[in-house]
């Protein structure tokens, strides 16, 4: 397959790094939002009811602006004790301008006193692909774990320091990039995309 361009529609450098690493070795030139010509940079209103609806909103918006095949993801953390919250509101759990620290602090407060057996959680991801003049596609993945009572590890981003992954006996923040790219929710969704890519086509 000749080299194709693929736009990753995110400003989150952690996500860009993960996705680029997972696509390494493919004949795909990966671009970020900073690589496309200046134009309307207003982010779309993510008003979907679930991860896939939000991913499709983002991918469709940036595909129409860039005219490139565009991959966008929406992901979040669903905590059993909180009835699936923060879910699609994970990035703004503690407010519109929330930092990772703000969100982690709020999660710990809400789970204060909850025993390990009640702290089950899962990271969910939906990746949407929009191509010119072609139907959109979605790919999903998840990773199951437990919310810790304090942050552990220095890596990752978001809720990674609080998300303990039992199969590796580590938090996501303790995983190196290669480990995380094998087991994360985003990696699982991207593997679905890569399996499709073996027979699918990026150009519209």
Instruction: Provide the spatial order of strands within the biggest beta sheet.
Output: 2-1-3-4-5-6-7
Give the count of structural domains: 1
At the first level of CATH, what is the class? Alpha Beta
- Shape summary: globular
pLDDT averaged over residues? 90
* CATH architecture type: Alpha-Beta Complex
Condensed summary:
The protein has 204 residues and is α/β, with parallel strands linked by helices.
Walk me through the structure:
With 204 residues, the protein is α/β, with parallel strands linked by helices. The chain has one domain (4-197): Maf protein (Alpha-Beta Complex). It has five helices and seven strands. The chain has a seven-stranded mixed sheet with strand order 2-1-3-4-5-6-7. A hairpin with a 4-residue loop joins strand 6 (163-165) and strand 7 (170-171). The longest helix has 16 residues, at 51-66. It is globular. The mean pLDDT is 90.
């Amino acid at each position: 397959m000749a080299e194709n361009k693929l736009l990753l529609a995110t400003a989150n450098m952690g996500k860009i790094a993960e996705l680029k690493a997972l696509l390494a070795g493919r004949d795909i030139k990966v671009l970020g939002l900073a690589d496309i010509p200046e134009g309307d940079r207003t982010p779309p209103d993510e008003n979907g009811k679930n991860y896939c609806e939000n991913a499709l909103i983002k991918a469709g918006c940036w595909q129409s602006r860039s005219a490139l095949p565009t991959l966008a993801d929406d992901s979040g953390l669903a905590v059993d004790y909180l009835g699936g919250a923060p879910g699609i509101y994970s990035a703004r759990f503690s407010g519109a301008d929330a930092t990772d620290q703000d969100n982690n602090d709020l999660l710990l407060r809400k789970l204060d006193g909850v025993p390990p057996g009640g702290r089950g959680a899962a990271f969910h991801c939906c990746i949407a692909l929009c191509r010119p003049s072609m139907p959109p596609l979605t790919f999903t993945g998840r990773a199951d774990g437990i919310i810790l009572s304090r942050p552990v590890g220095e890596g990752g981003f978001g809720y990674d320091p609080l998300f303990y992954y039992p199969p590796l006996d580590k938090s996501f923040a303790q995983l190196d990039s290669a480990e995380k790219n094998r087991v994360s929710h985003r990696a699982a969704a991207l593997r679905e995309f890569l399996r499709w890519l073996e027979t699918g086509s990026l150009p519209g």
